Amino acid sequence: MLVDTHAHIDDVKYDEDRDEMVARAKEYGVTRIITMGDTMTSSSNAIKLAEKYDGVYAGAGVHPQEALSLMPGDYDTLAQWMTHPKVKVLGEIGLDYYYENASREKQQEIFIRQLDVARQMHMPVSIHDRDAHGDTMAILKKEGRGLTGSIHCFSGSYEMAKELLKMGWFLGVDGPLTFKNAAKLPEIIAKIPLERLLLETDSPYLAPVPKRGRRNEPAYVKYIAEKVAEVRGISFEEVASQTTQNAINVFNLD
Ligand code: NI
Fold it and tell me: Which tens digits make up the pLDDT trace of 69-103?
């Protein structure tokens, strides 16, 4: 059994075959999927998909690349959504200094306010940090007290990983672990306690080897689990069972 703790199955790339894609995940042993929103609209769509499919749960939140689309009243809507039985996480939220579609100040403002909503509603969060390690850490230290969740697609150093673990966060592992240019990531993932790792695909993006370059989908979380097992020198079964338990605990899944 595996869990894909971060996917975007509302994406238009699945409009032709969404039912088959979700069924295929089950065939691959992926019994649970958390589909993340990145705008208010996609969050609402994620919730509809979670209502439609068994084993699919939703995250609701506004991604830093979409920061300008977030309206003042949306924070109340987000808080309301957090009470939905199939909404299990506030996300995805964070900072993206690679694209910088909105100013850094604006991104930080909506990141912090969404962390506040998560704290009020006692929900875990899924955090996007692209080229923004310093500010992400500073904000989590100051504004993330009492919160937990995943640092989605972790791309920082071992020192950053250790600090996050101390603060109670979990690290999300995605397709880049399987890439030839993964640099230090395999070494880091080998050293982190298995109890603190979460598997994710970020579908439809970041397809792992051997599907690299194609459309990603939750079924392929299996390839990420295989790679985690390989770099740690343990069995696939151990990775699957521990990371599934982690996901159930962090996101309070059924
Ligand atoms: Ni994502």
Answer: 999 999 999 999 999 999 999 999 999 999 988 99
Distance 104 CA to ligand 1 centre (A): 19
* Residue 159 Cα to ligand 1 middle (Å): 23
- pLDDT mean over 8-33: 98
pTM more than 0.85: yes
CA 9–ligand 1 middle distance (angstroms): 10
Distance 8 CA to ligand 1 centre (A): 7
Nearest C-alpha neighbor of 178 from the set 211, 224, 213: 224
Collect all residues with Cβ–Cβ distance below 8 Å to 100 and sequence separation of at least 6: 107
Nearest-angstrom CA–CA distance, 232 and 191? 8
Task: Output the CA 188–ligand 1 centroid distance in Å.
Answer: 21
Residue type, 132: A
DSSP string, 18-59: HHHHHHHHHHTTEEEEEEEPSSHHHHHHHHHHHHHSTTEEEE
Residue 96 host element (H or E): strand 87-96
Chain segment 152-164, per-residue pLDDT in tens: 999 999 999 999 9
Q: How far is the CA of 235 from the centre of ligand 1 (A)?
A: 27
- Give 204 Cα–ligand 1 centroid separation in angstroms: 9
Span from the CA of 127 to the centroid of ligand 1 (angstroms): 9
